[in-house]
Amino acid sequence: MNNENKEEQKGSLVRGLTNRHIQLIALGGAIGTGLFLGIGPAAVLAGPSVILGYALAGIIAFFIMRQLGEMVVQEPVSGSFSYFAYKYWGKFPGFASGWNYWILYILVSMAELTAIGHYIHFWWPDIPLWVSSLFFFILINALNLASVKVYGETEFWFSIIKVVAIIAMIIFGIYLLISGTGGSNASVSNLWNDGGFFPKGLFNHSENGYSGLFAAMAMIMFSFGGLELIGITAAEAKSPEKTIPKATNQVIYRILIFYVGALIILFSLSPWREITEGSSPFVMVFQNLNGLEFTMFGKVIQFNVLIANVLNLIVLTAALSVYNSSVYSNSRMLFGLAQQGNAPKFLQKLNKNHVPINAILISSCFAGICIIINKLVPEKAFEYLMALVVSSLIINWLMICYTHLKFRRSKIASGEKTKFPSIFYPISNYICILFLLAILVLMSITGMEIQVILIPIWVAFLFVMYKLYKPKQG
């Protein structure tokens, strides 16, 4: 009897995610709306040096992924880093990391569902935003209730669309540069010919606030939120000792290609001063092609109109991908918390497809409530909720780095060798922790004080909830 059948008999999660699923889930976690739409504000602050910022942030994200990867390959369990924080650090860290992650992606779900409504509105403005949000809310949750393989397959194709789109943009951008059809301003020299590669310095203060590479690092770092999703998949991955290391190691050069490579091409095609906070370099590529048109099915189509529709499809796919992964990861985190005793036991219930049905339904209810809140309360309340996303993400990464230190010390003390050692332990852990603390300092002086202040407040709230809940565990 194979392991999968044994797991099914025990009523456990089933290892239904194959190598290709894990590969694209890992890659998809690194490619979201932050890449397509979020680059604009960072580019305004830093100019072309934002390319270096994404490379540095990518290396830090890779170190964190390797630390998480070492733990989940050694012990591929549900709940991922919450399980490890609970086992190797303490009961409260396990409680806090799990619920912090859950709240983080409930809020992300809310934001993505709202965004999905706006993207559908682009094509069909007569459809109310709440209708399209509700439609995809039901659809994605239904897919996740089917089986883990359905989730993996859905995320595989979402990621394929994003990857193909970026590769197509890079290839088309290279063609525009080489052929000279990208416009009179298109040149590789755009990377340095207007104030140099660091046109706003590393960190400058002017009457308009701070600018420069360091000032943009917080925005840049948050683009990589979601990479830790690979740790959640470990309990349902086939041969995690093979698939997790392979997917983790390939992330670093894919980040270099999709972020750094794409940005080099895009900044070459469009002078950095033309980029505004509300724009994306991906859109700038096509600004000089507005007069181009072609015939399709007997109709004359403007090139810029086609591009607008294609870009809307891409960002819609990115939003659906993030929401799909949020539903998956939140349910597995609740399942893991219930196994630890840090959440109600009924959240361990699996349906006939071995999917944690109650965990999915509870998470979806909270995400749905957030949509209602978003529509009923003033925009400022929504702004504060999303500030909590930033705070939760920093807490999440810091806890992974420190938990890994505790994990390795435990393994060294017991004389146990791990299967997938992280890079440069423990130096890489300290580098990541110092880098993240530096990000907090930068946030506190560049207009993101609320996010920094929320961190101790949020941790204190989690501690109170932990104390209130513990007596009920018996």
Automatic annotation (TrEMBL):
Entries under InterPro entries matching the protein: AA-permease/SLC12A_dom, Amino_acid_permease_CS
Presence of the UniProt keyword Transport in the record: yes
* Swiss-Prot/TrEMBL keywords: Membrane, Transmembrane, Transmembrane helix, Transport
Give the top-rank taxon of the lineage listed in the UniProt record for this protein.
Bacteria
The family database entries (Pfam families) matched by this protein are listed as: AA_permease
Transmembrane stretches in the record are 21-39, 45-65, 101-121, 127-144, 156-178, 210-230, 251-272, 301-323, 355-376, 382-402, 423-444, 450-469
Keyword flag Transmembrane: yes
Entry GO CC: membrane
Q: GO BP, one example?
A: amino acid transport
User: Where does the Amino acid permease/ SLC12A domain lie?
Assistant: 21-470
Cellular localization per UniProt: Membrane
Q: How does it sit in the membrane?
A: Multi-pass membrane protein
Which PANTHER family does the UniProt record give?
GABA PERMEASE, PHENYLALANINE-SPECIFIC PERMEASE
This protein is called Aromatic amino acid transporter
